[in-house]
Design brief:
about 350 residues, alpha/beta, Rossmann fold, four-stranded parallel β-sheet, 8 strands, binds ligand L6N33NVT, binds fe (ii) ion
Length: about 350
Amino acid sequence: MTPTNVVDPKTVKPVAATAGHAPAKAGKVGVMLVNLGTPDGTEFKPMWRYLREFLSDPRVIELNKAIWYPILYGLVLTTRPKKSGANYARIWNREKNESPLRTYTRAQSEKLTGALRDLPNVIVDWAMRYGNPSTSSVAERLVAQGCDRILSFPLYPQYSATTTATANDQLFRALMKMRAAPAVRSVPPYYAEPVYIEALASSIERHLATLDFEPEVVITSYHGIPKPYSDKGDPYRAHCLDTTRLLREKLGWDENKLITTFQSRFGAQEWLQPYTDKTVEKLAKDGIRSIAIVNPGFSVDCIETLDEIGREAAETFHHAGGENFAHIPCLNDSPEGMAVIEAMVRRELSGWV
Ligand SMILES: C=CC1=C(C)c2cc3[nH]c(cc4nc(cc5[nH]c(cc1n2)c(C)c5CCC(=O)O)C(CCC(=O)O)=C4C)c(C)c3C=C
Ligand SMILES: [Fe+2]
Ligand SMILES: [Fe+2]
Protein backbone atom coordinates (compact mmCIF):
# COMPACT_ATOMS: atom_id res chain seq x y z
CA MET A 1 0.00 0.00 0.00
CA THR A 2 1.32 3.50 -0.80
CA PRO A 3 1.40 5.82 2.23
CA THR A 4 -0.57 8.98 1.50
CA ASN A 5 0.20 11.16 4.49
CA VAL A 6 4.00 10.84 4.85
CA VAL A 7 5.85 14.14 4.37
CA ASP A 8 9.28 14.00 2.81
CA PRO A 9 11.22 16.81 4.57
CA LYS A 10 13.39 17.34 1.46
CA THR A 11 10.32 18.43 -0.49
CA VAL A 12 9.06 20.92 2.14
CA LYS A 13 9.68 24.41 0.77
CA PRO A 14 10.01 27.70 2.70
CA VAL A 15 6.68 29.46 3.12
CA ALA A 16 6.10 31.65 0.05
CA ALA A 17 5.58 35.42 0.30
CA THR A 18 2.03 36.64 0.28
CA ALA A 19 0.94 40.21 -0.37
CA GLY A 20 2.21 42.54 2.34
CA HIS A 21 4.45 39.95 4.00
CA ALA A 22 8.18 39.38 3.72
CA PRO A 23 9.01 35.82 2.66
CA ALA A 24 9.37 33.73 5.83
CA LYS A 25 12.80 32.11 6.08
CA ALA A 26 12.34 28.45 6.86
CA GLY A 27 13.46 24.96 6.05
CA LYS A 28 16.69 24.87 8.06
CA VAL A 29 17.47 22.71 11.07
CA GLY A 30 19.39 24.12 14.04
CA VAL A 31 21.56 21.92 16.22
CA MET A 32 22.20 23.54 19.56
CA LEU A 33 24.84 22.13 21.92
CA VAL A 34 23.86 23.20 25.43
CA ASN A 35 26.23 23.12 28.38
CA LEU A 36 25.76 24.15 31.99
CA GLY A 37 27.16 27.65 32.03
CA THR A 38 30.03 29.59 33.34
CA PRO A 39 30.85 33.07 34.65
CA ASP A 40 31.96 35.85 32.26
CA GLY A 41 34.90 36.69 34.54
CA THR A 42 36.52 35.67 37.82
CA GLU A 43 35.84 38.97 39.64
CA PHE A 44 33.12 39.33 42.28
CA LYS A 45 30.44 40.89 40.00
CA PRO A 46 30.42 38.29 37.17
CA MET A 47 30.75 35.47 39.70
CA TRP A 48 27.79 36.87 41.66
CA ARG A 49 25.64 37.15 38.51
CA TYR A 50 26.44 33.58 37.44
CA LEU A 51 25.93 32.04 40.88
CA ARG A 52 22.71 33.97 41.40
CA GLU A 53 21.20 32.67 38.13
CA PHE A 54 22.42 29.12 38.79
CA LEU A 55 21.40 28.88 42.42
CA SER A 56 17.99 30.56 41.88
CA ASP A 57 16.97 27.70 39.60
CA PRO A 58 14.30 25.66 41.45
CA ARG A 59 15.46 22.55 39.56
CA VAL A 60 18.85 22.97 41.27
CA ILE A 61 17.78 24.12 44.74
CA GLU A 62 14.42 22.63 45.64
CA LEU A 63 13.98 24.59 48.87
CA ASN A 64 11.02 26.91 49.32
CA LYS A 65 12.03 30.42 48.11
CA ALA A 66 11.01 32.01 51.43
CA ILE A 67 13.62 29.84 53.15
CA TRP A 68 16.27 29.69 50.41
CA TYR A 69 16.47 33.32 49.22
CA PRO A 70 17.55 34.82 52.60
CA ILE A 71 20.33 32.18 52.73
CA LEU A 72 21.23 32.71 49.05
CA TYR A 73 21.37 36.51 49.19
CA GLY A 74 22.51 36.88 52.81
CA LEU A 75 25.14 34.17 53.00
CA VAL A 76 25.99 32.33 49.75
CA LEU A 77 26.18 35.35 47.42
CA THR A 78 28.16 37.40 49.92
CA THR A 79 30.93 34.81 50.31
CA ARG A 80 30.97 32.28 47.45
CA PRO A 81 31.68 34.66 44.51
CA LYS A 82 35.10 35.51 46.01
CA LYS A 83 35.98 31.93 46.95
CA SER A 84 34.80 30.38 43.67
CA GLY A 85 36.31 33.28 41.67
CA ALA A 86 39.74 32.42 43.09
CA ASN A 87 39.27 28.80 41.99
CA TYR A 88 38.17 29.87 38.50
CA ALA A 89 41.20 32.20 38.27
CA ARG A 90 43.51 29.17 38.60
CA ILE A 91 42.06 27.42 35.55
CA TRP A 92 41.03 30.48 33.46
CA ASN A 93 41.89 30.46 29.74
CA ARG A 94 43.82 33.75 29.72
CA GLU A 95 44.38 33.77 25.97
CA LYS A 96 40.64 33.87 25.29
CA ASN A 97 39.66 35.42 28.65
CA GLU A 98 37.06 32.76 29.37
CA SER A 99 36.62 29.53 31.30
CA PRO A 100 37.73 26.20 29.80
CA LEU A 101 34.11 25.03 29.74
CA ARG A 102 33.26 27.78 27.28
CA THR A 103 36.41 27.22 25.17
CA TYR A 104 35.78 23.48 24.85
CA THR A 105 32.05 23.84 24.15
CA ARG A 106 32.78 26.31 21.33
CA ALA A 107 35.43 23.94 19.94
CA GLN A 108 32.91 21.08 19.96
CA SER A 109 30.44 23.24 18.05
CA GLU A 110 33.05 24.26 15.46
CA LYS A 111 34.17 20.68 14.92
CA LEU A 112 30.58 19.46 14.65
CA THR A 113 29.93 22.11 12.00
CA GLY A 114 32.79 20.64 9.97
CA ALA A 115 31.65 17.06 10.55
CA LEU A 116 28.13 17.83 9.29
CA ARG A 117 29.26 19.56 6.07
CA ASP A 118 27.29 16.98 4.09
CA LEU A 119 24.04 18.36 5.58
CA PRO A 120 23.80 21.88 4.07
CA ASN A 121 20.46 22.63 5.73
CA VAL A 122 21.89 22.16 9.24
CA ILE A 123 23.25 25.06 11.30
CA VAL A 124 25.24 24.19 14.44
CA ASP A 125 25.48 26.58 17.39
CA TRP A 126 26.19 26.38 21.14
CA ALA A 127 24.62 27.86 24.25
CA MET A 128 24.68 27.85 28.04
CA ARG A 129 21.87 27.19 30.52
CA TYR A 130 23.27 29.87 32.84
CA GLY A 131 25.28 32.86 31.62
CA ASN A 132 26.43 33.45 28.05
CA PRO A 133 25.78 32.77 25.26
CA SER A 134 22.29 32.41 26.70
CA THR A 135 19.90 29.72 25.49
CA SER A 136 17.33 32.33 24.43
CA SER A 137 19.81 34.40 22.37
CA VAL A 138 21.00 31.30 20.49
CA ALA A 139 17.47 29.99 19.90
CA GLU A 140 16.51 33.41 18.50
CA ARG A 141 19.64 33.47 16.29
CA LEU A 142 18.84 30.04 14.86
CA VAL A 143 15.26 31.01 14.11
CA ALA A 144 16.44 34.26 12.47
CA GLN A 145 18.68 32.15 10.21
CA GLY A 146 15.66 30.17 9.01
CA CYS A 147 15.56 27.22 11.41
CA ASP A 148 12.01 25.96 11.84
CA ARG A 149 13.33 22.89 13.71
CA ILE A 150 15.84 22.81 16.55
CA LEU A 151 17.64 19.76 17.88
CA SER A 152 18.81 20.62 21.37
CA PHE A 153 21.68 18.58 22.81
CA PRO A 154 22.08 18.97 26.60
CA LEU A 155 25.68 17.80 26.96
CA TYR A 156 25.09 15.48 29.92
CA PRO A 157 25.56 11.74 29.34
CA GLN A 158 23.57 10.92 32.51
CA TYR A 159 20.14 12.53 32.94
CA SER A 160 19.38 14.63 36.00
CA ALA A 161 16.51 17.04 36.55
CA THR A 162 19.19 19.46 37.83
CA THR A 163 20.95 19.55 34.46
CA THR A 164 19.16 17.95 31.46
CA ALA A 165 15.62 18.92 32.44
CA THR A 166 16.49 22.50 33.29
CA ALA A 167 18.32 22.89 29.93
CA ASN A 168 15.12 21.78 28.19
CA ASP A 169 12.97 24.05 30.40
CA GLN A 170 15.09 27.03 29.41
CA LEU A 171 14.75 26.38 25.69
CA PHE A 172 10.97 26.16 25.98
CA ARG A 173 11.00 29.37 28.03
CA ALA A 174 12.71 31.05 25.05
CA LEU A 175 10.10 29.60 22.67
CA MET A 176 7.31 31.02 24.86
CA LYS A 177 8.33 34.49 23.62
CA MET A 178 8.11 33.56 19.91
CA ARG A 179 5.02 33.73 17.76
CA ALA A 180 6.45 31.43 15.06
CA ALA A 181 8.21 28.95 17.33
CA PRO A 182 10.29 26.13 15.84
CA ALA A 183 9.63 22.42 16.36
CA VAL A 184 11.97 21.02 18.99
CA ARG A 185 13.69 17.73 19.66
CA SER A 186 16.03 16.99 22.53
CA VAL A 187 18.86 14.43 22.46
CA PRO A 188 18.24 11.82 25.16
CA PRO A 189 20.82 10.86 27.79
CA TYR A 190 23.55 8.68 26.30
CA TYR A 191 25.06 7.08 29.42
CA ALA A 192 24.86 3.55 27.97
CA GLU A 193 25.40 4.21 24.26
CA PRO A 194 28.15 1.94 22.89
CA VAL A 195 29.78 4.88 21.05
CA TYR A 196 30.14 6.75 24.38
CA ILE A 197 31.41 3.75 26.35
CA GLU A 198 33.93 2.97 23.57
CA ALA A 199 35.09 6.61 23.51
CA LEU A 200 35.63 6.63 27.29
CA ALA A 201 37.46 3.29 27.22
CA SER A 202 39.80 4.31 24.42
CA SER A 203 40.47 7.72 25.99
CA ILE A 204 41.30 6.06 29.34
CA GLU A 205 43.59 3.49 27.71
CA ARG A 206 45.33 6.18 25.66
CA HIS A 207 46.02 8.32 28.75
CA LEU A 208 47.08 5.46 30.99
CA ALA A 209 49.63 4.46 28.33
CA THR A 210 51.33 7.87 28.75
CA LEU A 211 51.86 7.44 32.53
CA ASP A 212 55.05 6.14 34.12
CA PHE A 213 52.99 4.21 36.69
CA GLU A 214 50.05 1.86 36.61
CA PRO A 215 47.15 2.93 38.85
CA GLU A 216 46.01 0.27 41.32
CA VAL A 217 42.56 1.89 41.36
CA VAL A 218 40.80 4.06 38.76
CA ILE A 219 37.94 6.21 40.10
CA THR A 220 35.00 7.25 37.92
CA SER A 221 34.01 10.44 39.74
CA TYR A 222 30.63 12.00 38.85
CA HIS A 223 29.19 15.34 39.98
CA GLY A 224 26.84 14.59 42.88
CA ILE A 225 23.26 15.61 43.53
CA PRO A 226 21.50 15.90 46.90
CA LYS A 227 20.46 12.39 48.06
CA PRO A 228 16.78 13.38 48.53
CA TYR A 229 16.54 14.24 44.79
CA SER A 230 17.68 10.72 44.00
CA ASP A 231 15.39 9.17 46.61
CA LYS A 232 12.44 11.03 45.05
CA GLY A 233 13.10 9.52 41.61
CA ASP A 234 15.88 11.34 39.77
CA PRO A 235 17.47 8.47 37.77
CA TYR A 236 20.92 10.12 37.74
CA ARG A 237 22.61 7.71 40.19
CA ALA A 238 21.43 4.64 38.26
CA HIS A 239 22.69 6.18 35.00
CA CYS A 240 26.12 6.82 36.55
CA LEU A 241 26.36 3.28 37.93
CA ASP A 242 25.39 1.89 34.50
CA THR A 243 28.09 3.91 32.75
CA THR A 244 30.76 2.62 35.12
CA ARG A 245 29.53 -1.00 34.85
CA LEU A 246 29.61 -0.86 31.04
CA LEU A 247 33.02 0.80 31.08
CA ARG A 248 34.33 -1.87 33.43
CA GLU A 249 33.08 -4.58 31.07
CA LYS A 250 34.62 -2.83 28.07
CA LEU A 251 37.99 -2.44 29.80
CA GLY A 252 37.89 -5.97 31.24
CA TRP A 253 38.55 -4.67 34.77
CA ASP A 254 37.06 -5.91 38.05
CA GLU A 255 35.04 -4.04 40.70
CA ASN A 256 38.12 -3.21 42.78
CA LYS A 257 39.96 -1.65 39.86
CA LEU A 258 37.19 0.69 38.59
CA ILE A 259 35.06 2.27 41.31
CA THR A 260 32.34 4.96 41.41
CA THR A 261 32.30 8.11 43.56
CA PHE A 262 30.45 11.46 43.63
CA GLN A 263 32.07 14.88 43.97
CA SER A 264 31.23 18.63 44.19
CA ARG A 265 28.97 18.70 47.25
CA PHE A 266 27.20 21.98 47.93
CA GLY A 267 25.40 22.87 51.19
CA ALA A 268 24.78 20.92 54.34
CA GLN A 269 22.45 18.09 53.29
CA GLU A 270 23.58 14.58 52.37
CA TRP A 271 24.59 14.07 48.71
CA LEU A 272 25.09 10.88 46.73
CA GLN A 273 27.76 8.65 48.27
CA PRO A 274 30.53 7.52 48.29
CA TYR A 275 32.13 10.96 48.25
CA THR A 276 35.19 11.38 46.01
CA ASP A 277 37.33 13.33 48.50
CA LYS A 278 36.72 10.88 51.37
CA THR A 279 37.37 7.90 49.08
CA VAL A 280 40.66 9.33 47.81
CA GLU A 281 41.82 9.92 51.37
CA LYS A 282 40.78 6.44 52.51
CA LEU A 283 42.49 4.73 49.57
CA ALA A 284 45.79 6.44 50.45
CA LYS A 285 45.39 5.61 54.15
CA ASP A 286 44.64 1.98 53.23
CA GLY A 287 48.00 1.77 51.45
CA ILE A 288 47.00 2.35 47.81
CA ARG A 289 49.95 4.23 46.30
CA SER A 290 48.77 4.97 42.75
CA ILE A 291 45.37 6.12 41.49
CA ALA A 292 43.80 7.79 38.46
CA ILE A 293 40.50 9.69 38.30
CA VAL A 294 38.28 10.09 35.26
CA ASN A 295 35.07 12.20 35.06
CA PRO A 296 32.69 10.45 32.63
CA GLY A 297 29.74 12.71 33.57
CA PHE A 298 31.40 15.90 32.30
CA SER A 299 31.51 16.29 28.54
CA VAL A 300 34.23 18.93 28.87
CA ASP A 301 36.83 19.87 31.45
CA CYS A 302 35.76 22.64 33.80
CA ILE A 303 36.25 23.96 37.32
CA GLU A 304 34.92 20.73 38.82
CA THR A 305 37.37 18.49 36.96
CA LEU A 306 40.46 20.68 36.56
CA ASP A 307 40.47 22.31 40.00
CA GLU A 308 38.45 20.04 42.28
CA ILE A 309 39.98 16.83 40.92
CA GLY A 310 43.18 17.90 39.15
CA ARG A 311 44.34 20.01 42.12
CA GLU A 312 42.27 19.35 45.28
CA ALA A 313 41.88 15.58 45.01
CA ALA A 314 45.55 15.23 44.05
CA GLU A 315 46.54 17.22 47.18
CA THR A 316 44.23 15.14 49.37
CA PHE A 317 45.76 11.92 48.03
CA HIS A 318 49.35 13.08 48.52
CA HIS A 319 48.68 14.47 52.03
CA ALA A 320 47.21 11.14 53.05
CA GLY A 321 50.33 9.27 51.90
CA GLY A 322 49.53 8.48 48.24
CA GLU A 323 52.35 8.71 45.71
CA ASN A 324 51.13 8.68 42.11
CA PHE A 325 48.02 10.56 41.00
CA ALA A 326 46.70 11.09 37.48
CA HIS A 327 43.69 13.01 36.26
CA ILE A 328 42.38 11.70 32.94
CA PRO A 329 40.94 14.54 30.80
CA CYS A 330 37.30 14.63 29.73
CA LEU A 331 36.42 13.71 26.15
CA ASN A 332 36.32 17.43 25.26
CA ASP A 333 36.74 18.04 21.51
CA SER A 334 39.01 15.00 21.06
CA PRO A 335 38.33 12.71 18.09
CA GLU A 336 36.69 10.21 20.51
CA GLY A 337 34.52 12.94 22.04
CA MET A 338 33.46 14.30 18.67
CA ALA A 339 32.57 10.80 17.46
CA VAL A 340 30.05 10.58 20.33
CA ILE A 341 28.49 13.97 19.63
CA GLU A 342 28.31 13.40 15.89
CA ALA A 343 26.77 9.92 16.25
CA MET A 344 24.08 11.15 18.66
CA VAL A 345 23.24 14.17 16.49
CA ARG A 346 23.04 12.21 13.25
CA ARG A 347 20.76 9.63 14.86
CA GLU A 348 18.44 12.23 16.40
CA LEU A 349 18.25 14.22 13.14
CA SER A 350 16.72 11.26 11.38
CA GLY A 351 13.62 12.23 9.42
CA TRP A 352 14.60 15.92 9.61
CA VAL A 353 17.46 15.87 7.08
C1 LIG B 1 22.81 22.37 44.61
C2 LIG B 1 23.75 22.75 43.82
C3 LIG B 1 24.22 22.02 42.61
C4 LIG B 1 23.70 20.91 41.96
C5 LIG B 1 22.47 20.09 42.30
C6 LIG B 1 24.54 20.64 40.85
C7 LIG B 1 24.39 19.60 39.94
C8 LIG B 1 25.21 19.37 38.84
N1 LIG B 1 26.17 20.22 38.31
C9 LIG B 1 26.79 19.63 37.23
C10 LIG B 1 27.80 20.14 36.44
C11 LIG B 1 28.57 21.27 36.75
N2 LIG B 1 28.49 22.03 37.90
C12 LIG B 1 29.43 23.04 37.82
C13 LIG B 1 29.65 24.03 38.75
C14 LIG B 1 28.87 24.23 39.90
N3 LIG B 1 27.88 23.41 40.41
C15 LIG B 1 27.30 24.00 41.53
C16 LIG B 1 26.22 23.52 42.27
C17 LIG B 1 25.40 22.43 41.92
N4 LIG B 1 25.55 21.59 40.86
C18 LIG B 1 27.98 25.25 41.72
C19 LIG B 1 27.66 26.24 42.83
C20 LIG B 1 28.93 25.39 40.71
C21 LIG B 1 29.84 26.61 40.46
C22 LIG B 1 31.20 26.43 40.90
C23 LIG B 1 31.31 26.62 42.37
O1 LIG B 1 31.01 27.70 42.86
O2 LIG B 1 31.66 25.64 43.03
C24 LIG B 1 30.14 22.93 36.57
C25 LIG B 1 31.31 23.76 36.11
C26 LIG B 1 31.00 25.10 35.45
C27 LIG B 1 32.26 25.78 34.97
O3 LIG B 1 32.17 26.93 34.56
O4 LIG B 1 33.37 25.25 34.96
C28 LIG B 1 29.60 21.84 35.91
C29 LIG B 1 29.97 21.33 34.54
C30 LIG B 1 26.15 18.36 37.05
C31 LIG B 1 26.53 17.37 35.95
C32 LIG B 1 25.19 18.21 38.05
C33 LIG B 1 24.23 17.11 38.32
C34 LIG B 1 24.23 15.96 37.80
FE1 LIG C 1 27.27 21.61 39.59
FE1 LIG D 1 33.46 22.10 42.98
